[in-house]
Write a structure and sequence with these properties.
This protein has 263 residues and is an alpha/beta fold. Helices cover 30% and strands 27% of the residues. It has a six-stranded mixed beta sheet with strand order 6-5-9-10-12-11.
């Protein structure tokens, strides 16, 4: 484990921001599954992606941004140096930093505070973020639909951009930011995050246009996610052994860990 990984893991443990479902020696769950933000349609071809993926592990990076001193420590001692190495050795500083030529774009919501600190780490760079615009309000049968747009902040023409997220998984937000950045005349050069839990993308992200973007992250850990009908989780789903909104019901996860450790 690198110093940067250890720092992040220690701070997540300190702030109780990491949950692994406890299991007995036979693999039976002693705690609940968790619901993820990523969703899917019940049947192939449906537009209503209302079902949540589920899994055994949840990383709550939000607890880090609640303490700016801790997040500053993680960025300046962990992520910042990694991004610097990427910019110098992979991208070769195609344009010098400063003078509005580079921007760190925070993906709503988790990437915003991290991107702001990265802009401090690299003096002369900008911090920007897109906003969520509601294009369809929620009703009794469907969720609210939003899209990302430039509003309070704008990308400058020919500006190089690093997309910043707290946790990477399906890269849908990444792809959307890449497209609106390109439409505004900028160019996404890299992706930075605290944790990359994707099963598909490791050090490089290949988007829909087959344009490869380097990924720099403090912690790379593949975390499986399951459809609710998957045999690996179906029994627990049927029993209701799941916390659908982990951030708001963290006490249940904490109780499960404490109970398992004391048994």
């Amino acid at each position: 484990m690198t110093d940067a990984e250890k720092l992040l893991m220690d701070r997540l443990a300190e702030k109780e921001g990491w949950y692994d479902c406890p299991k007995d020696s036979d693999g039976k769950r002693l705690g609940p599954l968790v619901g993820y933000a990523a969703r899917y349609a019940d049947k192939e071809g449906e537009d209503d992606v209302s079902l949540q993926y589920v899994g055994d592990t949840y990383v709550n990076c939000a607890v880090l941004e609640e303490d700016p001193r801790i997040l500053h420590e993680i960025v300046f001692q962990g992520l910042g140096p990694l991004v610097k190495d990427l910019l110098e050795n992979v991208l070769g500083f195609r344009k010098p930093l400063g003078l509005g030529k580079w921007a760190f774009c925070g993906a709503p919501e988790g990437g915003k505070s991290i991107a702001s600190l990265l802009a401090m780490f690299f003096p002369g760079t900008r911090y920007i973020y897109p906003e969520k615009k509601v294009v369809k309000v929620a009703d009794d049968t469907s969720r609210e639909v939003t899209k990302l747009v430039w509003g309070r902040h704008q990308v400058r023409s020919c500006e190089d951009v690093v997309i910043v997220e707290d946790l990477l998984n399906n890269f849908s937000t990444t792809e959307e930011i890449k497209e609106i950045t390109r439409a505004a005349g900028g160019k996404v050069m890299a992706i930075a995050s605290l944790v990359n839990r994707s099963l598909k993308f490791d050090n490089w992200y290949m988007g829909d246009d087959n344009y490869a973007l380097p990924i720099v992250t403090v912690l790379r850990k593949s975390i499986p996610q399951f459809k609710q009908s998957d045999p690996a989780v179906a029994e627990d789903i049927k029993k209701g052994n799941i916390v659908w909104k982990p951030k708001g019901e963290w006490y249940q996860l904490k109780e499960a860990i404490e109970k398992a450790s004391n048994s």
